[in-house]
Amino acid sequence: MKLYKIITTKSYDELLQYSQNWQALYDSLELPISYSPEWLFAWLNSYNDRNLEIDVSFVYLDDKFLAVIPFMIRIEGKKRTLKFLSDSCSDYLGIPHDNEIRDDLSEIISQQFQRLNFTHFTFSSLHEDDNSLLILISSLSSRGLKMEVGAIDKSLSISINESYSATFASTIAHRRFKRQLKDINELGEIALKVIQKPDDKLLNDIFQIHEAKWSANRVFPQFTDERRKKFIRIIANVFAERNQFVVFGLYAGEKLIAYRIGFIHNSTYYDWNTSFDITLEKYAPGTVLLIRAIQYMQSNNILRFEFMNGNENYKYMWATGTMNVFKIEGENIKNFDKIIVPTATPKLKSIKDKKCLILDMHGIIYKGGSPIISTVTGIQKLQAIGIKIGILTNVSAISVSDINKMFMSCGLHIDENYIMTSAIAIKNYLIENKIKSCILIGGEPELPSLLHTNNITIVKNSHMAEAVLVGFSKHFTYDQLVTAHEAISQGAAFICSDADMLYASDGKNLPGTGWITAAISSVCNKAPLIIGKPNVYSLQLLIDRMKVKPSDTVFVGDSMESDINIGKKLSVTTCLHLGGVNQLHEVQMLQTFQRPDFIINSFDEITEVFTKTEMQ
């Protein structure tokens, strides 16, 4: 390795001495805004406190500045966690560096790990196309540190080219969007304002809209944190001076009703935050703003729209590409031979205070067409002591009343409001999004019945469809594939009940809805919006219906992908029932943070926790 000079800074004032070199390196590279020194200085101005240690290293070869290693250590008691600077406020994180140093950077960072005093490490917001991900993995491995690496999020994007322009025009020509673009005019004169230098009034309006919307959705709003507000104000001022900050504001007269704030850099718009006036939700101001913003970008030579992190449902309607976002974490312990990594979960005793159990149906209550007796008797005992029981299933072809008849035939009595099928979830989603017509593939007989009852028209002509809906079917045909392709190519939404490749039946795993979804997705080159599992949408609907908190709930399923993953996303306690889709050896191959909280062989194990005063 070449002889590099490494200068490590430990304070804000020391960092400032190297800001010009850092800025020059950043300007020479095509990197997101959050890699720039201004971003990190703004973050330090807002979030620096006594529990944070700055450790930023600058790497030179002779007099040439080649890399910044922007670390910090967050202190919580005896725990010292090594992270990237600005960890919680950035959707893109990494190590800005010149290609000249790329081959040696892993060794340089490895030396920094040896020098640093930390007990744990967490590096998040690492995008799969950034070689910082591989550099860090190599550096940690060379120190003998065991790590867990996992894709924890997705980043969606739009390539605004000629091909997309045609698709976009077809999409907004659909009746659904034409109706939204028309209806919003009831509010008065609607205008898009593109503002690059926001004043205090505009920023305060943005904060108020954000807080009101997320409070209404029972999510803690980030903008109630005064440090976050300060950070945004600094960022807006700094990057406005560089002509990179932008607010897309949708106005009804003089009133701001929706906004998107972000940055325009290297012909790319990076979308940082968005919200809309929740009292005007029926007019879809967020959707109208997004359409207007994309039209602006088409006219102003902006070639790419980066949604940043988060795979919210609406993004799939517009996006042309997806990218995994990774997280690396672990402990600063080298001799892992002495550490026992559990292959199964600990005792279930800790769930005894939970108030609600949500169960998958196939594999947990039924195996094939037969009820699992231990689960049936267990549910009866739990209901007798006041535990709420909910059912979450990706079934799209069977009605809730028919499911309940199956339950009653084996002695179970489940409140029908506590049974959530993917068909019910789809119906809810279509109503929320005012979708009135669709092409339907599968889901018979329940899905067509639900659509008819709720005045949603099933059409055969691709030009008339606002959406293509896919449910479970054993009779998918080539003609249906052609029709789906035509409709989606013309802008119809692509919505599926689930993407389950397999489901457990009579001791076998049989093909599920996923094979149909995969075929349409492959032909249309478009990812579907999955309404059922593993999307959290249906689980959130059920939790809301049952009026319970995620923290009071246990979700029991037999599939890591369809069951355990969504429970983790909503901070619900998760329990994998072996003998279904996934087995113990498959769980053992997963990273610790991907594993279920508990593993059981029989539902009897859960019943015992609640019905016995003490587990042995």
Can you put this structure into words, describing what you see?
By secondary structure, the protein is α/β, with parallel strands linked by helices. It folds into 4 domains: 5-153 and 326-336, Gcn5-related N-acetyltransferase (GNAT) (Aminopeptidase, 3-Layer(aba) Sandwich); 161-302, Aminopeptidase (3-Layer(aba) Sandwich); 348-394 and 535-611, HAD superfamily/HAD-like (Rossmann fold, 3-Layer(aba) Sandwich); 423-530, Rossmann fold (3-Layer(aba) Sandwich). It is built from 21 helices and 27 strands.
Question: Could you name the ranges where pLDDT drops below 50 across 5 or more consecutive residues?
Answer: 335-345
In spatial order, strands of the major sheet run 1-2-3-4-5-12-6-11-10-9-8-7
Main sheet characteristics: 12 strands, mixed
Number of helices: 21
What is the percentage of strand-forming residues? 25-35%
Q: What is the total domain count?
A: 4
